[in-house]
């Protein structure tokens, strides 16, 4: 008998769930949705690929180009890659990718960063620096 008011209230109220994707809820603050990569900032370091718990990011370097790929529907929107990217090229929209029935691979290509200048060799016969007295 104690549960009767709750049972009656639920019987005559609307369901709390939505008929997704027909009805999509408004995004809430700090929602972590679709992953996007600003490929012009990406340095193809591969950190996101190594940190991703779903293993859905692949980073390759071929023919002087960097290739960044995402298995879009394998992403669980955890945000670990966004937090670990050293150049902040990754971000997440507040909204989610529209539902689909097939596999979606997002592939982005960009220019590899210039390599850091090589350490200059010492000239032949140069003496090591003497400690100051
Ligand atoms: S997105 Fe960020 S972490 Fe991933 S390869 Fe590019 S620079 Fe590295
Ligand atoms: S948000 Fe999480 S699951 Fe999605 S690509 Fe980044 S690390 Fe992987």
Structure commentary:
With 133 residues, the protein is of the alpha+beta class. It has a domain of 70 residues: Alpha-Beta Plaits (2-Layer Sandwich). It is built from 3 helices and 5 strands, in the order αβαββαββ. The model has no long low-confidence stretch (mean pLDDT 89). One iron/sulfur cluster binds next to helix 3.
Number of helices: 3
* SSE series: HEHEEHEE
Return the CATH class of the domain at 27-96. Alpha Beta
Radius of gyration: 26 Å
- Biggest sheet statistics: 3 strands, antiparallel
Kindly state the number of beta strands. 5
Strand content: 15-25%
Bound molecules: iron/sulfur cluster
The stretches of 5 or more residues where confidence is low (pLDDT under 50) are: none
CATH architecture of the domain at 27-96: 2-Layer Sandwich
Could you name the CATH topology of the domain at 27-96?
Alpha-Beta Plaits
On the 0-100 scale, what is the average pLDDT?
89
* Inertia-based shape: elongated
Q: How much helix is in the residues?
A: 10-25%
> N-to-C terminal Cα separation, in Å?
94 Å
Strand order of the largest sheet: 2-3-5
Structural class: alpha+beta
SSE blueprint and pairings:
Elements: H1 4-11, E1 35-37, H2 47-51, E2 57-62, E3 65-71, H3 80-84, E4 90-92, E5 105-111
Antiparallel strand pairs: 1-4, 2-3, 3-5
The structure holds iron/sulfur cluster (2 copies).
Which features does this protein show?
133 residues; 14% helix; alpha+beta; two-stranded antiparallel ribbon; 3 helices; binds iron/sulfur cluster; elongated; Alpha-Beta Plaits
């Amino acid at each position: 008998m104690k549960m009767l008011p709750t049972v009656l209230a639920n019987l005559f109220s609307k369901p709390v769930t939505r008929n997704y994707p027909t009805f999509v809820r408004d995004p809430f603050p700090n929602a972590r949705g679709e992953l996007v990569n600003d490929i012009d900032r990406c340095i193809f370091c591969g950190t996101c690929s190594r940190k991703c718990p779903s293993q859905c990011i692949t980073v390759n370097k071929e023919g002087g180009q960097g290739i960044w790929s995402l298995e879009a529907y394998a992403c669980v929107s955890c945000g670990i890659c966004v937090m670990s990217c050293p150049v902040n090229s990754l971000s997440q929209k507040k909204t989610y990718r529209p539902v689909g029935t097939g596999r979606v691979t997002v592939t982005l290509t960009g220019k590899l960063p210039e390599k850091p200048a090589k350490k200059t060799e010492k000239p032949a016969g140069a003496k090591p620096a003497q400690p100051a007295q």
